[in-house]
Every structure is written in C-alpha cells, then in structure tokens.
C-alpha cells in the first residue's frame, strides 16, 4: 500500500508543516515486521482474517441490533507498514486544513510567512517524529475502523499483531481472529448504521485541534509550565488507571494529566476533550460488550480469550507502561472498561432497544457524568 498524501494545504500554495507521506514511509521502515512466519502461514492468516471479517457481520447485527449497511467501507487486512501509511494519510487529511488555518493566522498577525527554509526543516523533523509515533502504534493495534479516511471509513485488521497476541496468550487462532473481527465490525456497524456519527466525530476532533492551535505561543507556554507535572503522568496519582480514585482523572482536588496532550490544554479544552472521550468510551465499551456477548456458539473459547487478553493488558513491562502513559494510552485502556460498564448498566435497565437510543443524534450521547452514572442518562433520555 502506498500513501498518496498531499503535502500542500488545500486551497493554497503553502506546503504542510508535516510531510505525511514521509511520516508513513518512516514508520514503515522503523516498525518491526512482527512474529516470524512462513509465506504459507502469512497467506493463511490473511485469508482467515478476511473470512472472519465477513463472518462477524451477522453476529454483530443480531447482538447489537445494528447493521453496517453497504456504504460502511471496505475491509483491509494490512501489515504494520500498511497500517502506518494508511493512518498517516488519514491524519494528514484531517490535520492539514487545521495547520493551514493556524499558519494563516500567524501570517496575518506577524505580517509574514514562515520562511521556506524553516518550513522545510520543520517538515522533515515533524515527519520523523510522527513516523516514530506511528511505528510504535503500529505494533499495538489489532484492528481499527478508520473513520478519518479521506475516501470514507474502512476497517483495518493488522495481521502480524493478531498473530503475535494470539501466540502470547495461547488462544485458539480461529477463535481469536473472529473475536478481534467482531470488535472492529461493531465499530463499522456503529458508524454505518448512523451516518451522522462520522461527520460529528470528525467535526469535534477538528474543532478541538483548531482551538488548540488558535494561539501556538500560549500552547507552548502551557507545555513548558506543565512539564513540572510530568512525574504525575508517569506514576499516576492512584492505583486507578484513569489517574483518579473516582475514575474521573482527579486526585486530591487536582486533575491528574493523563498524557502529554493534557499539558497543553486549557480547562475549557480539557472539558471538551473529556466530552469527546466519553463518546469514545461508549464506542469502545460497546464494541467490547458485543464481541463478548456473541457467546460460545460463535467463539467457543470467548471467556478464556477475554480473561487471558485482559491479563496480558495488565502485564505490560515498565518501559511499555511509561510510553503508554506519555501517549495517554493508559487512559484509553480505561475507556474500554468504563464504556462497557455503561453499556451493560443501561442494557440491564432498558434493554438493547432502549440502549440504542444513544445513536439518535449528538444530544443523545452520554456526557462524562452520565458515563459514570448510567442511570442519569436513562432518566434524561427515557424519562
């Protein structure tokens, strides 16, 4: 798969501060290929993952009572390099217009453009840094519904990562591969059955980025000031993965940063990100519930897979944990748990049809407080 990301801002002659194609290629070169496999094993893995993507459609539709529909996007089985290139392209499509607006604001305020020589150096450095991040992430992701893809959402299954994890936890390969496909198909159904959701999600992310880059100088100042709280990110403030005993990222009356991005946000921006995180928790938790509730008739060893998979998630090494905290991935892991708890609580109270009212539109999505107290969402939406 070859990236074709434009390196110029839409509607202008200025190049983007990030060479996204170069970032994708850098990640592809850096990321390790994955577990050792013969050519025949790779072909079998890829073919089975494609089959699993098809086999997951009906169980998800029946369990979630959501159907992705014909326009929910294609299914791709990729290696780590392919995942990195695809995400570099998607990020560029989302971020470049935001960067263009930030550069234009800077030009108007200072009366001059960023010098081409500086921009060229910045592009190279940013591509290298972004490539390093994508390379790390490419070794972690089992699958993804890429809602940011410029030509519409699509489902990606990362073959070497699936093979690596199934070996590490001693899972039955056929069961584990279908289990992973069920999770990603649920995301495909969430967005495919509710066409408004993708546009709303992209809009929220774009608005947050626009706001964050509205005053780059202040953003840098907040980052420098926030570096003093870096130890809080690395060690956490409690045993709770979210950094707060109540699961809300607070400790001792002070909100604990959950990643580097937290250091550059104003309180208002954090509140907006918390609201978006609540929705992401809903999406991830719902997919986790569906992948488990299809039951042993579809995935015979589902209970064993879940137990071993969760144990593996808790057992990451110290270096991996530090990197995950810096990138905010520990907070993402909590999304699965918090979202699943919300989904199960609401379904127990009002059933699947009652829960599916959450997809009616933006106003029906849970707030952070409602995610923590599902009964308040039920009372608001169902009366």
From TrEMBL:
Could you tell me which InterPro entries the record lists for this protein? CHP03883_F420-assoc (IPR022454), Zinicin_2 (IPR018766), Zinicin_2_N (IPR042271)
Q: Name one GO molecular function term.
A: metallopeptidase activity
Is Glycoprotein there in the keyword field? no
Tree of life domain: Bacteria
This protein's UniProt keywords:
Hydrolase, Metalloprotease, Protease
* Region (Disordered) residue spans: 235-258
Tell me what this protein is called.
Zinc-dependent metalloprotease
